[in-house]
Write a sequence for this structure.
């Protein structure tokens, strides 16, 4: 399949409205994750207070992404069905490794799905999958909107990688494995930032100090990541790489075959009966 053919087969193609809403959602997310580093020490700001409000703000933005893509690319029932199936599979995979050294098999599925189905579909898929898995595992809390946004970024990034007309076979798998490894660490690091700011009694070397200079808090944050989650993130990254290299070829073929057969861009055409001048007979 050529790059142009794959882009045409994607169920959600980004248009101006979609890009604008994704950028807005991303900007809100960056501020939500990063503003405690710049907050004044006497403000009393912490994610424990702002996360529920962020959840209320993010969900309409995520819905707006879906609405924008539907209006621009005609996201039909087939695309919604594929979204539901992949989100259900991802949500079912997540509990399999929960609590075991960061082994989370859903990440490799998100990488491959985002690669085949594109960044627009990938962002929605990542967010919906994390939401569904939180409901499935009882992991609903103030951290959930942050997980939804981070997983949306994770899956969308795979859809932004260079096209398959330039990278095929083993080269493509190697690229996806490297991306999955780096993104797995990035996901863990971003989520650490969400939780680290509310843990102020871990010790002077690794705890968040409201109002401290940014570079000092960043040093503490890196020490916190190394001390608390490096092994967990490593397990997630290694499993993502192994599954991508071993199961990746089969799953990529299956996803691309399903995308081609779904013919997302096909539009129904109606012709007048007996267009050749002869009446139709039963």
């Amino acid at each position: 399949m050529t790059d142009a053919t794959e882009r045409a087969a994607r169920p959600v193609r980004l248009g101006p409205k979609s890009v604008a809403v994704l950028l807005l959602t991303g900007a809100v997310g960056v501020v939500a994750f990063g503003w405690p580093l710049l907050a004044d020490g006497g403000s009393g700001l912490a994610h424990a207070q702002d996360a529920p409000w962020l959840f209320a703000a993010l969900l309409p933005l995520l819905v707006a992404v879906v609405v924008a893509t539907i209006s621009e690319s005609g996201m039909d029932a087939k695309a919604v069905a594929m979204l539901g199936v992949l989100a259900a599979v991802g949500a079912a995979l997540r509990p399999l490794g929960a609590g075991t050294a960061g082994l989370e098999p859903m990440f490799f599925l998100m990488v491959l799905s985002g690669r085949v189905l594109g960044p627009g579909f990938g962002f929605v898929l990542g967010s919906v999958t994390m939401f569904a898995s939180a409901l499935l595992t009882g992991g609903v809390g103030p951290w959930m909107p942050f997980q939804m946004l981070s997983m949306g970024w994770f899956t969308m990034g795979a859809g932004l990688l260079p096209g398959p007309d330039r990278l095929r076979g083993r080269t493509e798998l190697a690229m996806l494995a490297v991306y999955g490894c780096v993104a797995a660490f990035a996901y863990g690091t971003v989520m650490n930032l969400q939780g680290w700011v509310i843990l102020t009694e871990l010790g002077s070397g690794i705890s968040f100090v409201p109002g401290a200079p940014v570079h000092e808090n960043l040093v503490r944050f890196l020490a916190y990541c190394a001390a608390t989650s490096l092994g967990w993130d490593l397990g997630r990254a290694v499993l993502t790489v192994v599954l991508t290299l071993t199961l990746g070829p089969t799953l990529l073929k299956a996803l691309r075959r399903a995308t081609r057969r779904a013919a997302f861009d096909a539009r129904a055409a109606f012709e007048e009966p007996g267009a050749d001048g002869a009446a139709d007979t039963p």
Observations:
- The radius of gyration is 22 Å.
- Confidence is low (pLDDT under 50) at residues 275-282.
- DSSP finds nine helices and no strands in the chain.
